[in-house]
# Entry
Amino acid sequence: MPRFDEGRPEMTLEEFRLLRDHVYAHCGILIHEDMKFVMERRLWPRLEALGLADFGAYHRYLRYDAQRIAELEAAVESLTTHETYFFREPAQLKAFCEELLPLLEKKNARTRRLRLWSAGCSSGEEAYTVAMLLKDSGRFDDWDVEVHGTDLSRRVLAVARRAEYGPSALRATPPDLLERFFVPVGVNRVRVRDDVKAWVSFGHHNLADEAASQLVPRTDVVFCRNVMIYFDQAARRRVLGVIRDRLCPGGYLLLGHAENLLSLGADFELVHLKGDLVYRRPELPNGEGR
Amino acid sequence: MSDAAQSLAGQEEVRYRALQAVDPRAPGALETFTAGLHDESWRVRHAAAEGLRRLPDAERVTARLISVLGERGETGARNAAAEALAGMGTVALHPLVLLLEHEDPDQRKLAADILGQLGRAEVEDVLLRALSDVDLNVRVSAAEALGRTGGEAAVRALEALLDAETSLLRLAALEGLVALRRAPATERVMALVDAPLLQRSALRLLGLCPPGASTERICQALASPVRSVREAALVALGTQASGLGPYARSELDAVARAVLSRIPEMTDRVAQALDVEDVQVRAGALVAAGALGEASLALAVAEVAREDRLLREVLFTLGQLGPEGRRLLLKNMGALSLPARTVAAEALVLLVDATSVPELCALLEWAEDDLRAVVVRALGRTRSPQALAPLVALLADPSLSGTAVRALEQLIAVHPLAALAALEAAVEQRTTPAAVAVLGRLGGAQVLPLLRRLARDADAPWRAAAVEAASRVSGDAGLELARGALADESAPVRIAAVRALGRQGGQEAGSFLGLALKDEDRAVRLAAVEAVGAGGATERALDLEALVRHADGALAVLAVRALAKLGKVGSGMLWDALGHPDTEVVKAALAALTAAEGAADGAALAVSLVGHPRWDVRAAAARVLGDLGRPECLPVLEQALSVEHDALARRALVDAVARLSGR
# Structure
């Protein structure tokens, strides 16, 4: 079988580790040693774009070049998989709609204000999905609602703001919701309807940057699905600290179905819904801080 | 949430916070945390277990935890105590070993379980003795624990247990050997595959046996009506395929193909397995898909690329699905997920021919940046003149122009006249300065008038491109334009001039580079340092030596590398570089050491760094010492090796020791 990688430089283990450590220091994303092959393939286009001969030169570029910050972001974008789609993990979304939304409606009845955060929102599918589910519930029509999507990658945020998607992003979208919440914009492409977009905002945020998390509004629910997989234990603890800080007491954290908080301390309590397990920031004693 | 529930949650939070606030050194902390182990809430118990691990008197804590293990009926507390003990490390070993002698078999079982979680090799003997315990549950737990801790003796004991009368013990032994990744003789494992209770574990262990008869048996299991058996077989198949070289892999694929092609509905089953949660099952399904060579699986195979860890196998498998599979991918690109599209595009690069240009151009219209880069490479491989225009147009895209230049180079080799015309047109229409650079490489002396004109252009990017292109066409013209460009008000133009001078070389270029080394712009100075090395301007060596001490690590690194290129590595400069606070400078100096034959104390310099705090510096120092071939350094290297914990630095030290000791 012919090789896909003819003429491309190999990444030595030492280069791999230097680059990995550099990325980790920037954003807490840990790339395991068995991912050297993936890192090599993902960064080849960066070497090509910059006209660099090998990964040692790329490491020096990230250390010293005037464009190093922008390039580091480009590298992280290449290394993280922005794979997402509308209505991903339907069982969890069903539990969110049927069990959490009624609780939130009751809890916030006085303020009629609801804030949700899609952390690691990638190209926006999750944030828009959440907004669509809120609309579909009919419970919050005249409420002050905001779904805030954040991601480390500025490039995917641009896609999220454009809100135009193709078949891959829509592969799990029920036909009736497709009709209700999207408008066609070309062959096989649709755009999220304006009234949904009006509930959704986006911003750039590095989850490892504790100080910058102050820019994220206090929120009732955090969706942080399939994000923790990129972090090691220490970084996960830090990220969970950030999330806990931004959650209102009694607010909910929804992780991906393959993720859990085992061995990460117990700052969150596990809540057994009928259809799913979610985490909750405990209520303060005596309703303090509410 | 009801008020009552809210109130309960609040009480739990109070207890949780109270435990977190306990000072581990305070009197009574042990009692408080021990009480917490018995709390009704798992969060509180977890906090108590964590708190106990922080207490200063670890031996006392361990003794108390062992006593909690004996509290029958307190399941939550016992589990929390076990969790705490497993986190205590070596201090818990001795008490747990003693607990293995307890009269209560339940206690002995717990002890074996926790010792397994601790995973320490020093308890192997104790666990081996526990294999003779009168209680079956203890023996099973000991066998499972040996699978986490064991060395050679554990492997032998687990192999012996494969003949045990009790299925449960045989199962624990199989699982233990799988965990240790140690397979006994193939025939011995094959004999266990037919026992329903053992089948799944035996199949997984069979995956660790050499390919051949074992592969055939594994593939036969894919005909099983039981899904979990089929999945175990797929895991085994994936394990066997991983790490095989091309020859051994093709033998495995041939065996698999012969068996799988006889199983009805195999393609459907593989397609289902490609979509399951378990990564190991998917890895095996990829091997099966590749062996079947079934083109209709191409889309499902590509979608497995959503799992990063399987990227290598996905690429390999797509290659096995042949042109038909790749055509299917091309037709369905829009329906694939982003990672699948990217990997499919990589596969397509090998398929394209002159007829593919329209389809590739259509992809360029809508695809994401990562995918577009692959498509640009594919356009170069089409060898079609139709690909020239889109590629020249892409020179204007900063993120793709580098890839487009390389793709164009492939086309220029087969269609030089058409390429020249396309590039000239692009320059005339002022599409992008990148076209000038390619034109300079291709056009020869006939494009010099154009380049001279562009060197006076109003826009700096065009001037810079012309200056650099001219240096590739003609030495004299290049020098002339570069000299003028050194006085340009734009830093990018001066950088282009500096690069041109480096390419030109010679005394005149060297003196101009001396000016550039003092340029007000850092980027120009950096380019000048590189150009001095590239152009062999030895008369500038003193300027570079001064820069080695510069606080800017980038300047210092480049200066060291340039001096090495010039063959001007002196020990004074090396000491300066090795003392630089930026470790990249230190490593550059170490790399230069082997070229510094004049530096008599080179070995001493490297020796001074084998104990450096950073692993990469230690590794670089070890490599240099190995290269220098000075046997008197051997004791230092051996000493460093005895205390080295970093895997990469260790490897460099082992290599250096082997070289110096003639092993």
Summary: The two ends of chain B are 72 Å apart (CA to CA). Chain B is about 70% helix and 0% strand. Residues 267 and 294 of chain B are 7 Å apart (CA to CA). Chain B touches chain A through 55 residues (CB under 8 Å).
